[in-house]
Amino acid sequence: MNQNQSNITIRSMAIFGLLFIFAILIVGQLINIQYLKGNKYRALAQKYTIREFTIKANRGNIYANDGRVLATSVPKYNIAFDPTAPSDKNFKNYIDALSKKLSLFTGKTQNQWKRMFVNARQNNRKYIRILKGINYSDYQKIKGFPLFKLGMNKGGFIAELHTERTYPLGDVLKRTIGFDRGKGNRAGIEGAYAVYLKGKDGMQKKQKIKYGVWKPLSDINDIEPQDGYDVVTNIDVDMQDMAHQTLLKQLEKYEAEHGSVVIMEVKTGAIKAMVNLGKTQSGNYEELRNYAVYETHEPGSTFKLFSIMALLEDKVADTTDIVDTGKGVYQIYNKNVRDAHRGGLGKLTLKQVFEKSSNVGTVKFVYENYKNNPAKFVNRLYNFGIHEKVHIDIKGEGKPHIPDPKDQNWSGISLPWMAYGYGVELTDIQLLAYYNAIANNGKLMKPYLVNTIKSFDKNIKTFKPEVINPSIASKETIGKMQEMLKGVVLHGTATNIKNPYVSIAGKTGTAQTEYWKGKGQYIASFVGYFPADHPKYSMIVVVHKPNPEKGYYGNSVAAPVFETLAEYIYGKTPREVQLGKMKPQTSDKTEKIVEKYKTIMPDLRGLPAKDAVYILENMGLKVRMNGSGKVISQSIPRGTHIKRKQAVELKMS
Questions:
Q1: What is the pTM of this model?
Q2: Considering all CA atoms of the chain, what is the largest pairwise distance in Å, rounded to the nearest integer?
Q3: Looking at the structure, do residues 111 and 202 belong to the same domain, yes or no?
Q4: DSSP string of 70-109?
Q5: Is 1 inside a domain boundary?
């Protein structure tokens, strides 16, 4: 063997040796990966190829009291396209037809769609958004378009399902229904009852089979989602819609900044309607904020209810006591209190002071009786409870403010200014709750929006009326306040809303606002209840910053909204009428009918409600009225023999 052969042999053995060592290392590494670190790498591989996907639970619906939907979740689809998925042949054959279909369905032209798809395919773009938030019907149509009908892998069709919250009433009740955008960003019913509405999400494991494509590992979900419960409210859709439209019309007429209406059931505190409208930058009115719940403001003359109640409860004055309001100006510490009536109102009883809303009279009564001990007056207000929230069942209620003599900013004018509603702050819902308590013979009810939590037909939780205070004042004081509230409409500041079909009790309010910036800004309000003698509903109407040139007094700006709604609600609700308390309008005609018909039903069509009721009362019948105006039909035909206490229903125009 020569030297060359020897060198070749040595090199070959070295190479084989190195290969052998490399093979040993590979085998060792395989053993290490397979057995020593196998679990680690298997878990790592699974992490990237198998993933847990959240299956969103269906959010519960929100219903009105009659079952009509106020909020619901509907399936929506986002449509996208992967132009790299189709084969060259399919892309070439179908891209024109697809582009044409999409041009008819959207605003882009056929050429625009085709150019976009061709460029995306050339640039290897795998995802192009086409449409967002379409409904199921449109999804089915688009799914059948040329190329798309080949599916995801061959046609590049991508459909992403999600749910969107929709509100069938649109802007009506928007702020009361509210929203749920996650913890810390919730409002209204959606936010307050999120724990019931949202349900529990499920989970499904999927395996990645190619880029962007995940296949479920099983036909069933690993954890099934649990749908949210439904929420049934006290809202009456008809009342809500009428309140919305009536307030909107008044805001537009008086070019106001914003306003609200709340209607509540007297005996229970159930809220039947809540409207909050504010002017947008474009000049339209929308439900921008829940003003009635969160916004505190100086109420002005509607606060006189509490001032008069304090005088009566402390027995320092009575309804027949007289005060001289002079020429309508009363000076305290170089500050003037003025009456709206030019030239003053002269001498008035306490009852007349309230009914005619005399600022001078109210301040004189309060100041003269409490100036040496203002804490007594404030403590009486605290005893009523008006310094506390009423804890309505949605978030955001504003905190009321009642000044205290212990406060650092208390001054000599604090007491007189409080007497007629300045320096104090309340929300609309708080003020309404206390007027509702007067209607409810002193019983203060918690205002509440939600009646029941349901799962299909099963009641999960029912919310019953809740008494905050069984009696805010003595029966004697409550009775006197009821008479004065009726007097405001009968011969006080709100005679313009005296209604022949429904009796109203309440109080007007006209408060200056932002007076520290200058004159000319007002808040007009009316709060009360109806019918006056047997109250069923209480209501507050507040209009902020109407155009002073158009009008700004509570009786002209806010009270007409109250009257319109009271007549509508009273007219649409079938009821047993308190017959003995209604007087006829055309007495001669009705008296002749009463004399002629004893046991035979007369023809009442065309008669006003009061006349018809008066006739039927004298015949001993029980009456139910549906609507308001004149009689257009009667349940017992003319000429029918009737018996006493028989029920008859009248349909009104």
A1: 0.76
A2: 153
A3: no
A4: EEEEEEEEEEEE-TTSS-HHHHHHHHHHHHHHHHHHSSS-
A5: no
Q: What is the pLDDT of residue 240?
A: 96
- Using only C-alpha atoms, what is the Rg of the chain? 37
pLDDT in the model for residue 584 = 43
Predicted confidence at residue 630, as pLDDT, reads 78
Cα–Cα distances (Å) from 470 to 26, 213, 381, in that order, read 87, 64, 16
- Based on the fold, state whether residues 207 and 254 are members of the same structural domain: no
For residue 125, give its domain range: 77-157
- What CATH number is associated with residue 554? 3.40.710.10
pLDDT score for 573: 60
Computed from CA positions of residues 630, 634, 637, 643, in that sequence, does the dihedral angle turn out positive or negative? negative
Q: Which residues pair with 223 in a beta bridge?
A: 203
Tell me the β-bridge partners of 527: 507, 540
Q: What is the pLDDT at residue 643? A: 80
555 and 582 both lie in a single domain: no
Q: Using the CB atoms, write b or e for 238-276: b if 16+ within 10 Å.
A: bbbebbbebbbebbeebebbbbbbbbbbbbbbbbbbbbb
Is residue 406 assigned to a domain?
Answer: yes
Q: Residues with Cβ < 8 Å from 578, sequence gap 6 or more?
A: 533, 534
My answer on whether 564 and 582 are in the same domain is no
Q: What angle do CA 106, 112, 116 make, to 5 degrees?
A: 105
pLDDT tens digit sequence for 540-560: 999 999 999 999 999 999 999
Domain assignment present for 430: yes
Please write down the long-range contacts of 215-221, taking CB distance under 8 Å and 24 or more positions apart: 217/50, 221/55
Evaluate whether residue 26 is within a structural domain. Answer: no
Counting as low any pLDDT under 70, the low residues of the chain are 1-12, 14, 17, 23, 27-48, 206-222, 572-598, 610, 627-629, 653
Contact 428, 295 (CB under 8 A): yes
Same domain, 199 and 123: no
Do 392 and 342 meet the contact criterion of CB atoms below 8 Å apart?
no
Residue 627 and residue 506 in one domain:
no
Beta-carbon contacts of 555 under 8 Å, excluding residues fewer than 6 positions away, are 493, 494, 496, 497, 508, 526
Task: Tell which of 555, 572, 589 closes a domain.
Answer: 572
Cβ atoms 114, 107 nearer than 8 A: no
Say which CATH number the domain at 615 has. Answer: 3.30.10.20
| Domain closes at, from 157, 186, 202 | 157
The answer to whether the CB of 626 falls within 8 A of the CB of 650 is yes
Virtual torsion, Cα 422, 426, 430, 433, nearest 10 deg: 0
